[in-house]
Amino acid sequence: MAPTTEPVKTVEWQGRQVPVWPMRTIKYDLLLSQDPEEVEKVLQACLQDGYFQLDLDSIDGRRMLEDREQLLKLMNRFFDAPLEAKNEYGLIDSHLGYEPVGNRTGAFGAGSKDGYEMLKVSRDEIQQGSPRVPSPIKNSGDLHQLEQVIGSCNTITKVILAALSTGLNLAGKDRFENSHRNDRPSATTLSMMHYLPAEITGQHKVGHQKHTDISSLTLLFSDQWGLQVRPPGECGALEMGFVEPQKNCAFVHVGDSLRFASGMKFQSCIHRVVPFDPTEHRYSIAYFLRAEDDTMFMDSEGRYVTAKDWHDQKFKAFTDPWFYQAQAPKTMILGGMVEAGADDPEPVTAYAPLPVQMPA
């Protein structure tokens, strides 16, 4: 987080004031043009913070914003379908298929489960014209919409990668784009998430646990509050804080794989999702750009592993019961990021029965 002397904004949540951490804003149109100042801004955001807001309000980005609105309509139809229809294939692979509510640890650790259902669509399968998606959205119109969104997200994240390569003065085979080629197998995925109201999930199925992403870059869309980040410890942040959704913007997170590929120069974004308003249905769209399966890097344990090995090992850690997660190295769930202090200054109640007041 960039140094600032301004007081941090707060919002009331669970009966206390919680920080709303500021985020740098990067303009996509300038990044697309490789504007030197914007390239330096995005580089510093990744070196110091591990996250930023991407402003897509330009002729180059508005198509993505339109695609997002159409995808939200598709998501509403899909998640309204009967469970047996949504779960037609189940979870085919760690980056592909449907996951019902309660498969993973929740936002508040031991004793809690996640409060969302999720559909994951493989970029590779969409590209090959043979996607395994459940019947409620397996028609030409919906498949075309999925292809449009994946194509737009892929372009945007590759533009960011190119800017970061340029900012670090990388050349030739060392540029990040060269380990993210479209024609090589990867676990790159479009994930669509539906967080259910607490009255449906119950008290102990809440949000999404604290973690860093497996991916190289995550492009995240949500107009609803609930995402919390924990800025790197050197910034003095001793707790989780919300980030405020901005109109016509996406959140971008640096994931483990890009941090490893940068030689640990970049920060990974520690984050979780909590029920800001436990009475609402919350929807988010995440595009996880991942390195080619056989990409090699040194991970946070000092091992040389492939991108696929890291993905599979960390996904298993995500889905392990809390007891086993607690025994695993912290470098697995948090990608080796160092914390300072507790996430919350006092224990958080897993269930808040009343909606909170939206900040002005």
TrEMBL record:
Key word Iron present: yes
Family designation: Belongs to the iron/ascorbate-dependent oxidoreductase family.
Keyword Metal-binding attached: yes
Keywords from the named record: Iron, Metal-binding, Oxidoreductase
Protein's name in the database: Fe2OG dioxygenase domain-containing protein
Gene3D superfamilies the UniProt entry points to: B-lactam Antibiotic, Isopenicillin N Synthase, Chain
Domain annotation Fe2OG dioxygenase: ranges: 186-291
Highest taxon in the source lineage: Eukaryota
Species this protein is from: Podospora bellae-mahoneyi
